[in-house]
Specification:
single chain; alpha+beta; 5-stranded mixed barrel; 4-stranded antiparallel beta sheet; 16 helices
């Protein structure tokens, strides 16, 4: 007689379900502890829930580029705007094209709307132009016909181009430049005006406009007239001057104002363009005591152009030995050069605050927009309206959860406790992870994301139902609860994995092909789908294994949801031996 076969050994998670449950409990405690440690106890909210500002920007063709408004340039501009806004540390920014010539920018509450407007609206056209002449920013009489040299050059702010560590400042009142093996720096240092070298100079030498360049550079009469009439002292005139200078061709000389309106300039053609700047970032210089500075790195071609420009300017006298760094038509710095600067990098300094240095570095680092834009519409969503939408979303979620609970209790009775405990674990994991993802990756909960979480309630409950029905099928076949729990699990597991894989694949595709708020729905749906697998495998199954050992469930109490009589269980199946067929010999 053959010996009976030994049963297969249960997997570790089935043999020791308590250990798995303790592991899940530790993970939950760790996530909750991390949430309290970070000081963030609630998820970040998007613009539709927390309130914020929405901009509608209309694209405009630039001079000489009548066909610049096209799909490629619009998508490029939208990408640059999004990187700029995200560079401000915005929790959830939404930048997308609308139609053929509009871009919609949504900024959540908590971000300075004025600062964001400047970041998304400016074209950040950077150019390096040689200075031909300069004067104070107010409107002045016609230039004096008799030219005279001035060592003051840069107006009220002494600006200089210096080397890095080890460079020496000139002993003359005019700041100078020197080479350094550690790279080159363009410095806009704040200094008091130096005394004019000529005894005949007036007390306000910068009040008179500069004459045509003494170094041989001719300023056309029409440009001299514009220069004399240019007024940079008012906000309106400064804005108009910047707009006109930004619209000029790179090959044409222009008149321009300093960004604070204190100086006005006649500038030569562009020597180095903004596209030649490879990177720019704000850095705090503690070694040389310059405070916040902006470091720029040039491309290979840009470094050569910069070296050629500084080499040419170094041979000239003030103010023709200066070059203006022009951003969107405004001069942000006008350092002087006394020698050729190689190295392919530069540093802009001059009383920057951290915010202004980061703003400038942000715009330059993320590139120039291929188009110019004007803000057609600006709308603010109040926090009260966002709170109403959040309240409505939470009510919808509560109603959906209540209906699921009623169904589980009515149909599964005692098994509903397992489902509710699993839903509770899933809710805790989802909430803590969403809260921690806010400061970690900038995730913000918007209304579609709330909808994704509500849909996930049904997906998670569906996994429990699949498993419960597999167990019931085994009981109907005449098996007791403990074998039914173990035998029903492999069949339920396959179904759950296939179902969740399809849901996750749909969420991933939706996240990739969509933009803005729809991505919030896809992200939440994908996250909760993954957590559904984790909860069912590491919590629901071990919990069912433990409950199968309890008398209330194992003996099939009428309120357990596993009563064999209510399920219509069949008597245990037994195999029948069939008697061997005997054949008669012929």
């Amino acid at each position: 007689m053959a010996a009976p076969k030994k049963g297969r050994r249960a997997p570790a998670n089935q043999g020791h379900p308590g250990r798995t449950l303790i592991l899940v409990l530790i993970a939950m405690v760790a996530l909750i502890g991390g949430m309290f440690y970070s000081g963030t106890l609630t998820p970040r909210l998007g613009i539709d829930l927390a309130g914020g500002t929405s901009f509608t920007l209309a694209a405009q063709n630039q001079p000489g580029k009548p066909n610049a408004i096209n799909e490629t340039n619009m998508n490029t501009a939208a990408g640059i705007m999004e990187r700029r806004v995200n560079g401000l540390g915005v929790t959830e920014s939404e930048v997308q094209t609308q139609g053929s010539d509009h871009i919609i920018v949504n900024i959540p509450k908590g971000t300075d709307a004025k600062q964001a407007r400047q970041q998304v609206g400016t074209t950040a056209q950077l150019a390096f132009r040689p200075v031909l002449t300069t004067a104070a920013g107010a409107k002045t009489p016609q230039p004096s016909p008799s030219p005279s040299k001035s060592g003051q050059g840069g107006g009220k702010d002494g600006e200089k181009a210096t080397g890095g560590k080890g460079s020496q400042q000139s002993s003359s009142p005019t700041p100078s430049a020197s080479a350094s093996t550690k790279g080159r720096a363009v410095t806009d240092a704040l200094k008091k005006p130096s005394a004019p070298p000529s005894a005949s100079a007036s007390d306000k030498p910068s009040a008179q406009p500069k004459p045509p360049a003494p170094g041989g550079a001719d300023v056309p009469a029409a440009l001299q007239k514009q220069f004399a009439a240019l007024d940079c002292s008012t906000k309106q005139s400064l804005s108009q001057a910047n707009e006109q200078a930004a619209g000029a061709k790179p090959s044409d000389p222009v008149v321009a104002c300093k960004n604070d309106g204190s100086q006005k300039y006649v500038l030569g053609p562009v020597g180095v363009e903004g596209q030649d700047v490879k990177d720019a970032k704000a850095v705090f210089d503690s070694q040389q005591g310059q405070g916040w500075i902006v470091q720029m790195d040039f491309t290979s071609d840009g470094g050569k152009k910069f070296a050629d420009v500084t080499g040419t300017l170094a041979a000239k006298t003030p103010p023709q030995n200066q070059f203006a760094i022009v951003l969107d038509g405004a001069v942000v710095s006008d350092p002087r050069v006394t020698e050729r600067l190689n190295g392919g990098n530069a540093t802009i300094s001059g009383g920057f605050t951290q915010q202004t240095a980061e703003d400038l570095g942000n715009m330059l680092s993320y590139g120039a927009l291929p188009l110019s834009f004007k803000i057609d519409d600006e709308t603010t969503v109040t926090a009260a309206l966002g709170g109403e939408q959040l309240h409505a979303g939470l009510i919808a979620g509560a109603i959906g959860l209540a209906l699921v609970v009623l169904y589980l209790v009515a149909y599964y009775r005692g098994l509903a406790l397992v489902a509710l405990a699993s839903l509770g674990v899933s809710a805790v994991l989802t909430y803590t992870i969403m809260t921690l993802l806010g400061p970690a990756i900038g995730f913000a909960l918007n209304l579609p994301a709330v909808c994704g979480a509500i849909v996930a309630i049904g997906i998670t409950a569906d996994s429990f139902i699949v498993y419960f029905e597999r167990i019931r099928d085994e009981i109907r076949e005449g098996r007791t609860l403990r074998p039914a729990v173990e035998r029903g699990w492999p069949r339920a597991r396959r179904t759950i994995l296939v179902s969740d894989f399809v849901s996750f694949l749909a969420a991933a595709v939706l996240f990739i092909v969509t933009v803005g708020k729809v991505q919030g729905f896809a992200f939440t749906l994908g996250l909760t789908t993954v957590l559904d697998v984790v909860v069912v495998f590491l919590f629901t199954k071990p919990l069912m294994t433990l409950l199968a050992r309890r008398k209330f469930f194992s003996e099939g109490h009428s309120w357990s949801g596993l009563d064999p009589k209510r399920l219509g269980a069949k008597p245990p199946l037994r195999r029948r031996r069939t008697a061997p067929t005997q054949t008669k010999e012929a």
